[in-house]
């Protein structure tokens, strides 16, 4: 009897706990949740969405926009959005001047919106209050429909809409590092979503959902396979598979691109060379491009990693990066395709500072690339670290369009288990000032083309997507995909505003919730820097898998794959001297930036050890010694994760149990791993420096030997 009473009690308690919170969620819906709106908002939407006027024979893309509006409004209001031809109060009109006469009659200012921009506006037509979603092209309509729905989802007033928006960057792409066996390089959300084996016959519904989610952000292209490319992707069998995906993505405005292995003519073409100047090789690529375009008429082009980390490339034949890129560009040119040639190059045979090598190789080639080539540059000169100064190539190539490569997957930031809002990282890079054309020459202006008047513009994010039900390994990782997409649309958007928008769409529009959770997200990036690589340190992760700390690693053949290469700590001091007295990497920046980084007076603590090698006793701006500051940074990192846990706990009532608990569990993992980072790093640097721990600082839990002995042969993502 007692058990029965207890059971009933638990049942009542559980029920009362779920009342007033959203129903359980597994994250599959991403930010497109379209929850039933609370009363006043629901009434307002119902008033502003009474019927829809749309083109009579809509194209596939317009149909997607219509379906999205109808489905979303039905879900949010529980009333339907019928199609009509008559304007009355609350009618939504969606169309281009060509596809809908009612739009043409309004004579809207669409000229500046280009091919993909849109206008969403309340307007009075014949005395009726209506909303128009208008664009020059159908893709703009789809983007406009998603914008209208974003306004609804984020609780904006629906009677004062007056939005015009057009993307500032032309190519807005995801890069999948997915292999043909479905493993994902640096993937932490399960296997590849592309089921290559069963394509093209089996088309998972997820492919469409993927396209829809990306279109909601304005992402307009995807590179399906790993930059460490397998040649087979260019065989007819795999081209068919890629074509099946392209067919699904097309209505959503997403074009397919492929990573091409430079030596493909040898591996799958039967040639004995891949020399870019060899006529047979050039002909092979031309034929290959023609073949791809026969199957995928809107194929976007190739992404190429060449002469980098063992990948083949033009330098194998004495050619330059420009020779290689231009050969492929020529093959794609008749079809309007693009080559994205990566600048992520460095060599174990080059004794020069790794941070300088890409600039050294590419700067002399400025202006030597064909018009349909973009050079794709990572945000920093080393490799997707928790923090890096912006890559010195930005601003240094006025005659070669550079595109940005960000990493969305958290290779060096705790995989998918750490909550790190990357919007803050992206924003920091985009707002960085290259000073090449005076103050305000931001990285954003380099990549949106406005600084150097680039014809081609692009931005890519290495995807964090896999088959996990929640797509990205955690709900908060979805925010990084979201933030990348929004910043790709406009690199001057504000990271915090994006976080708030995402929180409202993903969880709740409650202002207290949104403000508190956005604060937490914005601080999360600094937390990971503090517990992993404070004060400008970098690349201290353990070898190969990059999971956990390994600052002691020094036994790898390639010097620049060893963390000791980066921190250069010894009994005297720590840091990499990149000033004129060291590698002089600072000289790759414009003079005001070089001066800023060179001077110990002006450089910020956050970049200090990236550019300077300093004594452990160096006096910091805070008054602490460098050693004390380093230790307190690690401690602050832990405190911040604890604060994130407390914040999350305080938000419990706003969130459904499933997502609350999942995030709480992940934060616990993060705290444990932050502690591990802090302890292992302090233990190591203590030994190297021979310093005592500052007063009051807690000893690492284990000995340095313990941390060194840990091994992770099955860490994901390799
Ligand atoms: C590094 C990754 C490696 C990638 C490489 C790249 O560790 O797996 O192949 O970048 O971007 O971050 O090519």
Mind explaining what this structure looks like?
- The strands form three sheets. Strands 6-7-8-9-10-11-12-13 form an eight-stranded parallel β-barrel. Strands 1-2-4-3-5 form a five-stranded mixed sheet. Strands 14-15 form a two-stranded antiparallel sheet.
- The longest helix is centred in the last third of the chain and has 33 residues.
- The relative contact order is 0.08.
- Strand 9, helix 10 and strand 10 form a beta-alpha-beta unit.
- It is built from 22 helices and 15 strands.
- It is of the alpha/beta class and 718 residues long.
- The site of beta-D-glucopyranuronic acid (BDP) has 10 residues, from loops.
Summary, kept brief:
This protein is an alpha/beta fold.
Question: What characteristics describe this protein?
Answer:
alpha/beta; binds beta-D-glucopyranuronic acid; Alpha-d-glucuronidase, C-terminal Domain; TIM Barrel; 10% strand; five-stranded mixed beta sheet; 22 helices
Mean pLDDT: 96
Structural class: alpha/beta
Task: Quickly count the domains.
Answer: 3
- Estimate the helix proportion, in percent: 25-40%
Please tell me the CATH architecture of the largest domain by its name: Alpha-Beta Barrel
| Alpha-carbon Rg, integer | 27 Å
Largest sheet: 8 strands, parallel, barrel
The bound ligands are: beta-D-glucopyranuronic acid
What is the CATH C-level name of the largest domain?
A: Alpha Beta
CATH topology label of the largest domain: TIM Barrel
Spatial strand arrangement across the major sheet: 6-7-8-9-10-11-12-13
Count of DSSP strands: 15
Distance between the termini: 55 Å
Portion of residues in beta strands equals 5-15%
Individual helix count: 22
Point out poorly predicted stretches: 1-23
């Amino acid at each position: 009897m007692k058990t029965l009473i207890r059971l009933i009690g638990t049942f009542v308690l559980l029920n009362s706990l779920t009342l007033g919170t959203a129903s359980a969620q597994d994250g599959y819906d991403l930010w497109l949740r379209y929850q039933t709106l609370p009363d006043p908002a629901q009434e307002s939407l119902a008033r502003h969405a009474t019927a829809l006027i749309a083109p009579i024979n809509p194209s596939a893309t317009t149909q997607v926009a219509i379906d999205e509006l109808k489905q979303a409004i039905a879900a949010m209001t529980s009333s339907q959005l019928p199609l009509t031809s008559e304007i009355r109060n609350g009618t939504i009109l969606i169309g281009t001047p060509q596809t809908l006469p009612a739009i043409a009659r309004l004579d809207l200012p669409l000229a500046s919106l280009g091919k993909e921009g849109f206008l969403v506006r309340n307007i009075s037509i014949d005395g009726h209050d209506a909303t128009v979603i208008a664009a020059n092209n159908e893709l703009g309509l789809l983007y406009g429909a998603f914008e209208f729905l974003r306004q609804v989802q984020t609780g904006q007033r629906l009677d004062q809409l007056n939005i015009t928006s057009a993307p500032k960057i032309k190519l807005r792409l995801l890069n999948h590092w997915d292999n043909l066996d479905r493993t994902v390089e640096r993937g932490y959300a399960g296997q590849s979503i592309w089921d290559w084996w069963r394509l093209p016959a089996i088309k998972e519904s997820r492919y469409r959902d993927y396209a829809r989610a990306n279109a909601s952000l304005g992402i307009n292209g995807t590179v399906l396979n790993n930059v460490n490319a397998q040649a087979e992707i260019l065989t007819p069998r795999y081209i068919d598979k890629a074509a099946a995906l392209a067919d699904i993505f097309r209505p959503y405005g997403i074009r397919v691109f492929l990573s091409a292995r430079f030596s493909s003519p040898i591996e799958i073409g039967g040639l004995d060379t891949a020399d870019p100047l060899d006529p047979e090789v050039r002909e092979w690529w031309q034929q290959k491009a023609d073949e791809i375009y026969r199957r995928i008429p809107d194929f976007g082009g190739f992404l190429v990693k060449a002469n980098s980390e063992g990948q083949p490339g033009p330098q194998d034949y004495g050619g330059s990066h420009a020779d290689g890129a231009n050969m492929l560009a020529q093959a794609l040119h008749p079809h309007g395709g693009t080559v994205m040639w990566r600048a992520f190059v460095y060599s174990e045979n080059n004794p020069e500072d790794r941070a300088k090598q890409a600039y050294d190789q590419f700067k002399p080639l400025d202006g030597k690339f064909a018009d349909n080539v973009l050079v794709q540059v990572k945000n920093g000169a080393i490799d997707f670290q928790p923090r890096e100064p912006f890559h010195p190539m930005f601003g240094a190539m006025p005659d070669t369009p550079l595109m940005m490569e960000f990493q969305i997957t958290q290779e060096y930031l705790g995989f998918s288990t750490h909550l790190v809002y990357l919007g803050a990282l992206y924003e920091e890079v985009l707002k960085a000032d290259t000073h090449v054309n005076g103050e305000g020459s931001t990285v954003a202006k380099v990549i949106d083309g406005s600084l150097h008047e680039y014809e081609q513009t692009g931005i890519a994010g290495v995807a964090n997507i896999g088959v996990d039900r929640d797509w990205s390994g955690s709900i908060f990782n979805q925010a990084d995909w979201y933030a990348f997409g929004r910043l790709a649309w406009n690199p001057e958007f504000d990271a915090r505003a994006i976080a708030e928008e995402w929180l409202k769409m993903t969880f709740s529009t409650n202002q207290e919730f949104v403000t508190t959770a956005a604060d937490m997200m914005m601080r999360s990036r600094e937390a990971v820097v503090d517990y992993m690589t404070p004060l400008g340190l970098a690349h201290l992760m353990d070898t190969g898998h990059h999971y956990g700390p390994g600052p002691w690693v020094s036994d790898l053949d390639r010097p620049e794959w060893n963390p000791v290469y980066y921190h250069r700590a010894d009994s005297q001091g720590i840091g990499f001297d990149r000033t004129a007295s060291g590698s002089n990497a600072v000289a790759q920046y414009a003079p005001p930036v070089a001066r800023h980084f060179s001077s110990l007076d002006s450089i910020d603590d956050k970049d200090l050890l990236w550019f300077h090698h300093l004594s452990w006793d160096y006096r910091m701006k805070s008054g602490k010694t460098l050693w004390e500051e380093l230790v307190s940074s690690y401690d602050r990192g832990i405190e911040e994760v604890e604060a994130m846990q407390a914040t999350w706990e305080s938000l419990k009532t706003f969130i459904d149990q499933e997502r609350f608990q999942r995030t709480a569990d992940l934060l616990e993992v993060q705290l444990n791993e932050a502690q591990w980072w802090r302890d292992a790093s302090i233990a190591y640097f203590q030994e190297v420096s021979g310093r005592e721990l500052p007063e009051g600082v807690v000893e690492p839990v284990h000995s340095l030997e313990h941390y060194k002995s840990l091994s992770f042969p099955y860490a994901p993502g390799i």
